Amino acid sequence: MNARRTVSILGATGSVGQSTLDLIERSPSSFEVIALTAKQDVSGLAAAARRVNARHAVIADETLIEPLREALVGTGTRVAAGEAAIVEAASLGADWTMAAIVGCAGLRPVMAALRGGRTVALANKEALVSAGHIMMRTAADSGATLLPVDSEHNAIFQCFDRARPAAIRRIILTASGGPFRAASPEAMRSVTPSQAVAHPNWSMGAKISVDSATLMNKGLELIEAYHLFPLEPEAFDVVVHPQSVIHSLVEYVDGSVLAQLGAPDMRIPIAHTLAYPERMNTPCERLDLVSISRLDFEAPDEERFPALALAKAALKAGGAKPAILNAANEVAVASFLDSAIAFLDIARIAQETVDNFDPPAPALLDEVLEIDGEARRRAEQIVRKYRL
Ligand code: NAD
Ligand code: MG
Question: Considering the entire predicted model, what is its pTM?
Answer without folding.
Answer: 0.98
